[in-house]
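Write out this protein's structure.
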Amino acid sequence: MRVLLACPYAWESPGGVQVHVRELGGRLRKRGYEVLALAPGAGPPPEQWMRAVGRPVPLRYNRSVAPICPWPGSARRVAEEVRRFRPDVVHVHEPMTPSTSMFALLASDAPVVATFHSGATRSRLFDIAAPALRRLARRISVRVAVSRVAERFAASRLGGRFEIVPNGVPVERFERAGPIELPGARRLLFVGRLDERKGFPTAVRAFGYLATDLPDLWLIAVGDGPDREAVRLLPPEVRARVHLAGRVDNRELPSLYAAADALIAPSLGGESFGVILVEAMAAGVPVVASDIAGYDEVVRDGVEGLLVPPGSPAAAARALRRVLVDRDLAGRLAEAGRARAEEFSWERVTDRLESIYRDVARGVARMTP
C-alpha cells in the first residue's frame, strides 16, 4: 500500500507534529508500506522518502510559532507530488492549517485520513474560517484526534465524529536507555520550549524553593526559547546548579530521562497530549505535571504522577519534594508509569492507524462525517 503523509510545519523545526510524522513514516516503511512524506523545508531533508515542498514562514499561533508554507507555488508542488506518487491513502496532519496538509487534502483523489493534534483553547482565525473549513472537511474519510481535548477543539468548529488515536512514543528506547553523565547527585528535568506557555519560569521558581533544603539537587533544562533568562531570578549560588542543555536531538533524549530523578512539566495550557509525560513514564521517571486538559488524559493524579495547579511554583515544589524525598512514593509512581506508557507505544498506535488505512482503502465506512 502507498501512503502519503503530509505535515504542515517545517520538517527541520522542533515540534511534536514533525516528530509524529517522522516516526510514523519510519514505522510504516518497516512494515512494508511505500511512504512519501511532504512538508515545508528550508533545504533537502535527510530522509529519502520525504520531499520539501516550499520554504516556511513563521506564524504566531497558540502562544507559539508555527513554521508553515501557505504559498500558491507550494500548493502546486504538493499537487504534483500527489499525482506522481498515486497514493492509496493520504494521511494529513492538522489539515485546517493553510499549508502542506491542506494542499494535499485539496489535491487528493485517494481517501484521506486526517489527524488533529491541536489542544488550543481558542482560535479567532479558526472561528472566522469555520464555515469554509467545514466544506473542506467533507473531503476527509476518517477524522482522528490525538486526545479528547483535540477532538473537542476540532469538532466544535468542524462537526463530525472522530476516532481517538493518541500520539505514539518509542517506548522501547526510553525503557532501555542508560543514563548520561550530568552534574548533581539528584536531578530535576524540564523538557520543552523555554517559554511561558510551557511553564519554564514556573519550573525555575519551583526549583528555587527546593534548592536550599536539597543542596544536591540540580535543574536540567532541555530546550531553548525566549524565557531562558528566567534563571536570573535565582540567587547566584542556586543559579549555578541549573544546567541549560539547549536543544537536544530526539535520539539523545532517552539517556537524559534515565539520568533524572523527577520530571517537571508545568505547562500553563494549550496542550492536546503530553509526549514528554509518556517519555518520562517509559523511562521510569516520576512525573509532576500541571493539572490541565491533555495532560490529565495521560497521567492520573496519584497513580502515575502528581498533578498540580498550573502556574503555581509553590504547589509544584511541594509535589516535587514528596517525590524526591519519599522513595516508596517515587517507586510506585515509576512502576505505574512504565505500565501506562505501554498504552502509547508506537506499535499500538501504528496497529490502529493500519486498521484505518485498510478500511478507507477498501471503501469501508468507519464513521459518518
